[in-house]
Every structure is written in C-alpha cells, then in structure tokens.
TrEMBL record:
It comes from the Archaea. This is Amine oxidase. GO terms for molecular function: oxidoreductase activity. NCBIfam families: PRK07233.1. Residues 10-405 form the Amine oxidase domain. Pfam families: Amino_oxidase. It comes from Methanofollis fontis.
Amino acid sequence: MDICIIGGGLSGLAASLPLSETQDVTIFERRPIVGGCLASYDRGNYQIEEYYHHCFAGDRRLFSLLTDLGLSDRLEWLKGSTGYCVDGTIHPLTSPIEILRYPHLTIVEKARLALLTLRAKNFDLGPLDDVPAREFILEHLGEGIYASFFEPLLRSKFGDRRDEVSAAWLISRIAIRSDRGVEGERLGYIRGGWHELIDAMAERAQSRGCRIETDTPVTAISRKGDCWEVNGQVFDAVLATVPPQEIGRLIGTDHFAAIPYQGAACLTIGLDREVSQGIYWVNMKDPAPYGAVVTHTNFAPRERYGEDIVYLASYFGEQPATGLKETMLTDFCRRFSVPKESIHWAELAVERLAGPVYTTGFRHLIPAYEEHGVYLAGMYSPPNYPERSMEGSIAAGQEVAARILEGTDA
C-alpha cells in the first residue's frame, strides 16, 4: 500500500514510523527541513528550536518513543521559573513568597487563584467547552484577577479572539502547568535540543524505506478511482497533518470543517547578556509587540550555547504585522536596555497555521481520523484537545497510523 503523508511535523513523523514497517510511505514537507513547529536553527556549534518547547511529566507516549529511539538518557528535568512584567517592572512569581509579594493582586485574589490551580485537574472539561474563559474567570475569580492576570495572557495568546476562547482550554492549560515546586515548574527537555528527536524519527523512518521529500509543498490533490493523486503521484491513501480546510481547498471541496487557527511569530535572539532577572518565562502585561519573553538560557544551562538565548513570542490572525522583526527587536532593546551591538543574531520564525484557537464549541469541530476518504491527524485531533502538546501530536500520529493499518488488514 502506497501512503502519502502531507506534513513532516511531529504527527506526520510519528505516523510514518509504524506505517513504514509494512507499507510504502512518502512524506511531502513544504519546508527545507522536517519538524514543523519543532524544527531547529543550526547555529554551527549548537542547535536551538525555532519555537520554544518542553514536555511534561505525564507525556507517556513521548517517553516511550524516546526509549524506542535510544534517547531516553537525553531527557532531563529542569525548573521553569515565571514572572510578570507590569509597568516596566519584572515581578517574579515562582515561589509562594514571590507570589505573596506580587502587588497587583490582593491576598484574597491570590488565595482564589491558588485554589483554582489546585482544583484544575479535577474539573469536568466537557461542560466548560461551551463556557467562554472570560465568563468563567469573572464568575469564579472576579474582575480584579481577570484584569490584572488573565486578560493580558489571553490577549497576548489570542488577540481579538480572546473572548471566544473556552474555559475548557483555560482550565486544561492551568492543569498541565501545575507540576510546580518552590523553585518553579518541572519541565522536560532533551539535552542537546529537540532536533535529536526529530532527526532520530526521520532517520528511523527512512531506514524502513520512507521517502521524505522536503521543499515540496502539496499543490494538488484529486481522487482517481479508489486512489488519490498528489502532486502527480498516485497513492492508495492520504494522511494530512495540516488543517482539514487546507485539504478541502486543495481538493476543491468545502466538505471539511473549518478549524479556527492562528499564526505564530517567534523571534529568537542570541545576545551577550541576561535580561529577565534569571527568570525563564516572563509574561507581558505591559503593551508590547510580543506577549512573553522566554529566556531559554534561564532554563537550559547557558554554557551549552556560549551566549544567552531569548524568545519573543507573538501570535496573529491572518497575517503578521509588516516589519514585525524590526519592531520586536527595537522594542526589546529599548525595554530591556540592550544595546544593538549586544545582539549576536536574531531570526524570526513565522507560521501562518501554528495552532488551533480553542473557541467555545471546539470539541464539536474535531474531525474524525478519517473523513471523506482522507486520513487526518494533527494539532486539531482528539489527543490535542483542549490544549495542544508534543504528547498530543505524537498520540494523534500513532492513533491514525493504527487506523490505517487496521484497514490494510481488513
């Protein structure tokens, strides 16, 4: 059976591993490298992800995959400290003492927020899918916590669509990030970078005969009897990891549900100084052309890179703002008193379809693994609801592969 996989990101590679054991598999990847949003920059003496990534203690499929690929000894657990930039001041919010000192919430509001964090893993997320996050916060935590804490986060993450986001996403987000101690969140990372996982997956698939065609965007899909023609090649099955509506556009049909998506623009900077007071993740309450300052070298040891590495994270709707790279870099240098000569390099990664927007009612939009004769798996699949993760993308790829293989045995 000849199988075409559209997209060489985590879901596509995860699906290719079991499929290529017994089937002929071809991956079409539009970029020069595989990995999707987990792809990395090659800086010569090190590699660094284009978009910051880490894993969580419950990511069992990821851990199993690392073991299978001989990478389990590369997994390390690091501490992710957090803070909030308000009125030009960075407030650490990692330890209980730091949270108690935070001046922009009252003691009562802090107690309510702490209680919600403790309860997050016990919520029934089903009913919350139809409840806007803003409405939930106002009802359970009050206006002060919404205005001072959650509204800036929702605005930086979802922009004009922040009022459409469901409470299911919010509570899931809180729950997945609640593995905390007094030193911060416990987060997993691959020593050397996540490119080691991507490279190992691609090499394993290719060793089984999988063909990976990079720099090859899919431009046409059409039905040919019981088969599919993709870019002029005939396949018995097509597995798409891009949004369903993109497949519908290529086929020329509106039968696929439109999943709400947003874009991401992430500026990665190498520089000669630390700027965030030793904190890994600083959320921006102050208006800025980015919603968070993520200092990778306050997470993974700086000596591995020989310089400080900072991410500036931004999200957009249809298109990023014109001149965004220079706008972000200029604001960063001004806001954090960084001379331009201290910047060693800066690269802007832009992905128009970076991930779903988990609007109210999203669970009713989630497609099955097979619709209209096409197999579908990606960030919109059931394992990635109501919050996407590497674990969810691996699970989606593995589960759709199992479905395809069941069909070959029928």
